[in-house]
Amino acid sequence: MPIRDRALAHACIRTIAAAALVAVSAAASAANLGFLNDTPISYMKQRDLQALNSAAQVALNTKKDGESLDWDNKGTGNTVPIKGTVTPQNSFESDGLKCRKLTLVAEAKGQTQTWTPSACKASDGKWKLKKQ
Fold first, then answer.
1. Which of 22, 44, 105, 131 has the most CB atoms around its CB within 10 Å?
2. Can you give the residue ranges of the Surface antigen domain (predicted)?
3. How many CB atoms are closer than 10 A to CB 82?
């Protein structure tokens, strides 16, 4: 086989190998998030997340530790009904900011999902998730 043909064959093999590697990597990444299939967050759209955020802001500002605020996604345009609760758990200070741990619960299509982030009150008065 002439050198030019050999170089072309090697280039083709490298291209095919690279494409296969990209395909396998993409499949592996998708598989790593497969556990989220059919969970409430997989049905949430941007407006649902905004409704949850609004409920969290209200709960953090008005509820005592352990008191829950119900929320749902009515009016967001999502055909999948999602509902849940936001429950502030305990208050603490971090980097000079007032912070609270909270429990967020979402229910959709018979599945329940729970998150327990912390949020801190920023200088603009809004609660923002604390980076873990």
1. 44
2. 30-130
3. 23
